[in-house]
Amino acid sequence: MTQQLTDQMIRTDLYINGAKESATGELNINNPANPLETVGVAAAASRGQALDAVAAAKAAFPAWSALEPAERARQLSEGIKALDAFQKEDAHLLSRENGKVLQEGLVDLIVFNIRVQLACGLADKVNQTSVLAGPPTETVVEYKPLGVVTLIVPFNWPLAILAASLPYALVTGNTVVVKPPPSAPLATTRVVQRLAQTLPPGVLNVITGEDTEIGDALIANEDVAKVCFTGSVGGGKRIMEMASRTLTRVALELGGNDPALILPDAELDDASLDRLFHGTYDTTGQVCMAVKRLYVHRSRYQEVVDGLKSRLENTVLGRGTDVGTTMGPLHSPLQKSLVNELVEEARASGAEVLEFGTLPEGDLIAGNFVRPSLVLNPDPELRIVTAEQFGPALPVMAFDEIDDAVTAANNTWAGLCASVWTRDETKARSVAARLEAGYIFHNAHGPAWLDQRAPFGGLKSSGMGREMGIEGLREFMDTRSIGINTGGFEVH
After folding, report:
1. Which fold has domain 10-254+458-480?
2. Which of 107, 324, 456, 468 gives 20 to 30 Å between its CA and that of 359?
3. Is 417 among the residues known to form the active site?
4. Of 120, 228, 288, 417, which one is the catalytic site residue?
């Protein structure tokens, strides 16, 4: 049956202990392409309702954690099948509330499914133990789930990012409260609720609302064992401060200022330039692991600039759901102001700024649109280089020596991702080993090229903790050692 994709207004409720629950407050969600267009209304939970969700998860924990990991994985695998019939509908909704193009909304949902399946495939690793042989003591080291976990996700790729932690938390036996982004909660709430309905009551709960009202209950709560947060560095610091009051553990995936290094022997064919372009400008640049700084060997500088220009010249700014749109708006007016400010600051300093595309008019004239840009050889002290733009503005800087490029790449507060572009695999490994980042790409950059089996996370102020892979499982478990006296010593 063909899904009818409409722009009707959507309403979502809370989901606590296996049941929908309304709230007295509401979050009005508008389309970033047209702030006068209301996409929907989400329930805004009270503090008491947030506490209820944590209590429901706590009550469900003993029975859920007692199941075998394979059974938990089976229930999750079965549960995500309930999402398939709504995929196009949910992608359309996500595009409207988020602003990104429709295809990216669909990919967000597809990646959610993939990551759930990958986590379920690790179920046989959950109860693995190691033995330290005696005598005098034979010690078994095992892993146990933590308890209730709060997962806080951002607006840009809410479902893909959620699936880097949610299935790992559930497969290992924890119970979960999900807090979708308050500015774009609708699609995430619907997807998580559909999955939660296939699981025992209380195992998976969804709370939407204002951070000031429910944040404390979901973070600084003695019944919450861990909080996972993806967002800005400032947001991560606030989460850590709140969690410190109850010694709640935190895992933080924060911002990035990713460098890409184009070495003299880099392959710059159309496929390579396409990867560089998409690794920079997809989702209107609002990706934590997007290329934020581009360092190009002087001998290849003009070639790279020309290659990016030829792609940017095809930019069509518009509503994410409109056919033909290649780049949607930024998500918020504050981000629009920041990106424009950084670009104008660079222009005023003397840097050459190339801008592309045409700003929409008519009913989209008040949307959060910015023209994508290249900022050529800016002063490295400018904020367009030192800050995370989180928008489609790329500083491009020339270098002569690889050592200088590595030094410049590492001279930042961030350490999320980086990339090395060279035909020489040995050189790629050598340069990558010197870059201070949690994940290094070779001849590519960005989410499309991330190995979903590998642990992901940042260094420095880009965060702490790891998502996905075996390390992603262990993030939601604690070690316990049991020492058995096998003889060989006397007690005096």
Report:
1. Aldehyde Dehydrogenase; Chain A, domain 1 (3.40.605)
2. 107
3. no
4. 288
